[in-house]
Write a sequence for this structure.
């Protein structure tokens, strides 16, 4: 990488070590980790708290900055996957199949959201069968049990043949939805074929996926024979996926903070070896993070449910009944949830003292910063706290990816990936590309809405660009969440080596 003198001065000031060396305790340096990981949320929360109003217009600048950072950071890991063939070859099926399905749903989303079509029981069963096959394929994309190209071709051919038989069967039975039955039968046969072809490659229990897809076939046949089929609105699929993406986003944000805590745990091994102590269990870190979720539900839902539905109208049908249940048990749930937070923090303190003797400053600072952020939901408007959470997550991710790639590509790799060449100019690769992408999102999403409100909103193919970007946010975020679930696992030797963690 080529750095200018001002950048070198900044790196020295922030204590950033050379790319070929790693700080023994922190990920990058005490200053950078504190500002970008532990207390990154203060960068936007303080300006928003200084504004007394709770309407987005009162702190519009910070609001737009946070949402732009959120949109941009989800694309930061894609060059690592698609411009380094060594990385892509680790999971070629996942890196191909999952994005293709998400892109197909993104393209279809505007039509599905306006569609008056309905899915009957057979259609739902067929869709579930295809989803189970999809999950089975993704789960097999590992070195020890990845299907070969020939096996995939055989599986696909058997599915096509089964589709023809399934359609004939549905026609003979005079099923009202032969397509749903056909899809279920094709998924079952393809799933069974894949398991038979790989019966000696996987020591774990086999035929689970075929059994589940077989149940989908039975359900499709039974539903097709029903006199009064139950109907499901096709456009409800978008609302369902939006809720799934929202819940997955919460899990994803918390697990990223968990990953940073485990990163520091890996680097603190000498402290534990010196004391002859065991590791801090992973469940202790997770409990400290997730113990706050019940407290948020019982303390905030009753007061802010209207604002939640205003911000996320797609989730009203799914979340409304849940909020009703939460409100009814809040008198008991609130004190129990407070006790859970206290116990979780106490367990963290106990295990941290036993393992490191409170000498792992990185873990302590990260824990203090994370607890401070978690508590903001109870003291400031939840939307401001949510935005601080989102900004913290985005900044964490962007800094982590920069630090990771800085070490991985510090010297030319034998296979000379394209990303290595691009990162020779880090300002162009990281800063200018992020600014350009952020400007594009700002224009497409907010021009004529929050920016120059009297201007005409940009359009793409007859629909407002804001709507397209909204759908893109849903489905591209699913790709981001899924990829990050296995790309940066601390248990992977390649990841541990690149961040300087001890085995």
């Amino acid at each position: 990488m080529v750095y200018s003198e001002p950048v070198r001065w900044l790196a020295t000031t922030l204590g950033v070590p050379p790319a070929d060396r790693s700080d023994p305790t922190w990920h990058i340096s005490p200053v950078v980790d504190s500002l970008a990981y532990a207390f990154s949320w203060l960068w936007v929360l303080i300006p928003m708290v200084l504004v007394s109003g709770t309407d987005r217009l009162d702190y519009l600048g910070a609001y737009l900055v946070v949402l732009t950072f959120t949109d941009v950071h989800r694309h930061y890991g894609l060059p690592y996957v698609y411009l380094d063939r060594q990385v892509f070859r680790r999971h070629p099926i996942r890196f191909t199949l999952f994005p293709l399905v998400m892109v197909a749903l993104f393209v279809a989303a505007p039509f599905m959201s306006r569609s008056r079509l309905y899915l009957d029981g057979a259609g739902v069963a067929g869709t579930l069968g295809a989803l189970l096959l999809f999950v089975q394929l993704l789960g097999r994309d590992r070195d020890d049990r990845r299907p070969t190209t020939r096996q995939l071709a055989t599986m696909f051919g058997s599915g096509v043949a089964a589709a023809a038989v399934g359609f004939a069967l549905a026609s003979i039975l005079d099923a009202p939805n032969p397509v749903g039955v056909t899809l279920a039968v094709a998924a079952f046969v393809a799933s069974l074929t894949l398991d038979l072809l790989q019966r000696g490659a996987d020591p774990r229990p086999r035929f689970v996926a075929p059994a589940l897809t077989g149940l989908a076939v039975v359900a499709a046949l039974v539903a097709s024979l029903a006199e009064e089929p139950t109907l499901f609105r096709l456009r409800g699929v978008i609302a369902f996926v939006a809720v799934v993406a929202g819940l997955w986003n919460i899990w994803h944000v918390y697990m990223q903070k968990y990953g940073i805590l485990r990163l520091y745990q890996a680097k603190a091994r000498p402290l534990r070896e010196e004391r002859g102590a065991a590791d801090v269990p992973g469940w202790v870190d997770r409990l400290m993070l997730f113990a706050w979720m019940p407290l948020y539900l019982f303390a905030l839902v009753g007061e802010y449910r209207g604002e939640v539905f205003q911000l996320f109208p797609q989730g009203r049908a799914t979340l409304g009944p849940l909020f009703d249940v939460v409100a009814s048990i809040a008198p008991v749930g609130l004190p129990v949830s407070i006790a859970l937070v206290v116990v979780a923090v106490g367990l963290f303190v106990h295990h941290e003292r036993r393992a490191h003797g409170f000498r792992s400053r990185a873990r302590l600072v990260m824990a203090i910063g994370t607890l401070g952020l978690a508590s903001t939901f109870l003291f400031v408007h939840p939307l401001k706290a949510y935005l601080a959470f989102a900004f913290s997550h985005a900044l964490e991710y962007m800094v982590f990816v920069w630090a990771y790639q800085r070490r991985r590509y510090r010297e030319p790799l034998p296979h000379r990936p394209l990303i290595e060449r691009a990162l020779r100019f880090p300002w162009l690769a990281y800063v200018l590309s992020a600014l350009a992408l952020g400007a594009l999102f700002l224009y497409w999403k907010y021009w004529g809405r929050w920016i120059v409100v009297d201007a005409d909103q940009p359009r793409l193919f007859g629909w407002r660009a804001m709507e397209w970007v909204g759908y893109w946010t849903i489905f591209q975020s699913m790709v981001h969440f899924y990829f990050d679930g296995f790309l940066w696992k601390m248990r992977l030797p390649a990841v541990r080596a690149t961040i300087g963690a001890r085995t």
